[in-house]
Amino acid sequence: MRGRYHARNVERLAFSAGRGKLATLAVLACAGFGERAQAAPRGDRLVVMAEQQVLESWPLLEEIARRFEAAEPGLEVDLYDEGGAVGGRDKIKFLLAGELQVDVARIDISEFAAFVREGALVDLQPFADADPDFHAGDIWPFALDACRDARGHVYGLPSTFTPYVMYYNRDLLEQAGVPLPRADWTWDDLLAAARKVTRDTDGDGRIDQYGISLTQWLQAVVPWIWQNGGELVSADLQHSRLGEPEAVEAFEFLHRLLHEEHVASFDASFANQISQGLFQAGKAAFYGPVGYWETYRFRSISGFRWDVAPLPQRKTAATSVAMTVYVVPRTSANPARAWRFLREMVGPEYQTRLARMGNGVPALVDIAHSNAFLKPDVPPQSEQVFLDVLPHARLLPPLANWKKIESLCQSELEGILLVRDTDVPAACARMAAKTDEFLARERVRGERPRAPSGVLETSLAASAIALAAFLLLRRGRREGPLARAEARSAGRLLAPWAAGFLLFLLGPAIGSLLLSLCDWSPLAPLADARFVGADNFARLFHDGTFASSVRATLVYAAASVPLSLALALGLALLFSSEGRLAASVRTLIFVPAIVSPVILGALWRWILDPERGAANALLAKFGLEGPRWLLDPHWVVPSFVLVSLWSVGAQMLVFVAALQSVDRTLVEAARIDGAGRWRRLLHVTLPQLSPVILFNAITGTVAAFQVFAQPYVMTQGGPGDASRFLALYVYETGFLHFDMGYASAVAWALCVLLCLALGVLVLSTRRFVHYRAGGGAA
Amino acid sequence: MKPARAAWIASALLVALAFGYPLYFLLVTSLQPEGQGLDAGSLARATHFENYAHALAQMGDFPRLLGNTLLVTVLSIAGQLFTCSLAGYALARVRFRGRELCFALVLASMCFPDTVGAIARFLLFRALGLVDTYAPLVLPTVLGGAPLFIFLFRQYYRSLPEELGEAARVDGCSHFAIWRRVMLPLSRPMLVTVGLFTFLATWNDFWAPLVYLLSPEKRTLSLALAGFQRTYDTAVECLMAASAVVLVPCVVVYFVGQRLFLRGVRVAASKG
Asked: Minimal Cα–Cα distance from B134 to chain A, Å?
């Protein structure tokens, strides 16, 4: 009796939770999950979002915050961690979209123009003008200028930065009898030195000591173009200049180093810090172009002497700069106070101590010239180089949509650098054409009318009302009392699901459908969305990146789903028995499924490294030459399929569980009838498992269409667009290219594709799936 | 020993080697000297047990992190099991108008990628004032965020004998009571399977905590792990040590738990 009473109560609770409005949910949630976030901006609170660039910098920031609190009684400084280098910098975009109070944040300079264009930042010029202690001349002029808008107003203060330089292995160069690079050394000097150093040291017929370990992301490649007198975009920022001879020559030089002279190799270690890079292992004479952060990483090198030099020159000297900027977002409650905190972060004390920790070149000129930064007693000896190159250091063009252009170029860039027989001028022309097309579309984009205010909210409410009306009308139809009672109890049982479905699936789905009809940057208030009709969907049809995303996703799903299904089933059949060994094996099979994707990704990058990875070493033992895996556009999707096979633990478990409930009497009967092992499996066991197989196939398909974490960590969609799976493209478009409308359209396309695939799967397997009829058999 | 048995043992060892590699990798990397990374001779250098102390110190308040993560995980699993099995029961065993429609909605919602709704969902939680609470991490799961499991439960309940609930129903038992007292005890294999899947999804979830949590004292383990990847200095060996600390208990729990799980399955199967 007590049990039933209790059950009734729970039923009532579930019922009221379903009936009650959002408020009930919110109250329940708050009661259960502690204090609520402070929704309203509060003047007595300063919210600082900061990144931990080196381990020791956080306590220092805390110290500053506490001191700031002491100076302004009643103030509370909340230091929030962005959450690490992976994905951490996208957090601010969510906070802005949600209009949450943030007073100080840190953004990458390449996104600065986008933030300014969308009105996401507070104009700091009035505060700078009113601040008697602020002297613009204390800060590196180029760095401060990068924080100004077109009118010259300051919107942020630079944190530490780093120009790109060339690292070199002093011992290797001296052994090869090559002179150390001077300040004005040239491309020819680099090539000559690289030729002398490149060797096969262990005589196995493969080069294992390279002249240069090259970096391949756009910011690292751009200096070569600038040195050759080329440009990325025209001075008015309207046209790409990547197709011009100066740029083409630069790319041809890099291509030659890699694929004709064979004196250069790619550095895979930057994104893959699990293993040592070629340079760190003493297997490359030069490493670059790359920034100051490697100095921090190379502290632990003890096997050889190393130093830094400016980048080699061609027609002129040039290098690029990576920099982060402290800004005051538009959601700040008290910009004047935020400005004072900003001044602390770019003040002499914090900057001096950051410099001592090795956290980049300080923003303040005097401190950069002090021993706090130059550190004469620690390598590199020539830290001065980072300051010497600044007169010809340049930032990337201040385009608000730079990230999208970078991504368009990056795909061709990888084609040029990774693939031996690329037609370089043609690839450059494609790169320029893609950029031009994009810039032209962007010019049109700005002229669209805004959506009338509240249109998104109104449509959302209207759809909710329509849905509710539909459900109520259905309910109103005449039914017998028994059927009504059944319907009522079904309603109660389904209430929690229905609430979740409406709130967290249907609501957001409709929201994103509405967004897909708009042009909206997550940096801007939602009211700034511009209505563009079906334009975003029309764009899908002539977006080359989308086409390759669809292709990659379909190929991946078509290969990984059946293969992992077969593997999981095979493993389950082999190891479903009792006993310690089978249990241990099952546990080990499960391990890759519980390791975090970030770590798995790092591990696989290391295994699949074409030069020194475990996979190719294993193949070499059998006399096979392994492919270039993640670096080869044809092999990258198969590589991901391989990775997916490794995570079949969960699927296997489902099979193991299902095998336990296979009806043994039937198997026995078949055995007595003389059926062999295979026939028993094929005709008795598998049909009984068929619903579970279908279940795993559906789960697998859903997961395969939404594969995100692995490519995000391992390839970022490269080489080219070969692994830019749809979910990754959705994320990039929304949060890196600030094009939430188009991202929603792509997501809906993904949704439709997945529905089609599942439909085909379910219908085509209908004949083979057997449910125990009426359950009577069991 | 029979040849078949020998072949089985050989294949078991091979599979164990292939799938156990990441664990080996994790442990070896976690014991490397600072800043060295893996290379030839890694195994010989794998002697730096002090990395574990450093890693724990760097993560901050470890018991608190663990507690937060456990809270989120346990709530998610409990909610998921409750909602999904309840809905699965209704869809399988209660006859009502609109059942097919509801089931179609369940199926359709499986197709909707998480990435799409992310911003809209964030705006919703923001409107409810629930940013920087655990609600956004837990509520979507608690309210049946994974429609797949509803499907799974429905299939399972449909495969149970029709008579099972009928008698109780005729005696005037409510559907909820039938679910609670007849169906739930029989669905142990499903409960464990779904619980396990939910555990995996929640334990490793990185994006929801990243986006929704602000206060340092609310952080979860996955966030703390991500914190090891810094722009200038990624302490790989500490990252791996911390990961091992997070992972190894799960492996042990799994190893011990699977026996109970399989036993449960067999009991259920024989009863059915």
From this structure: 6
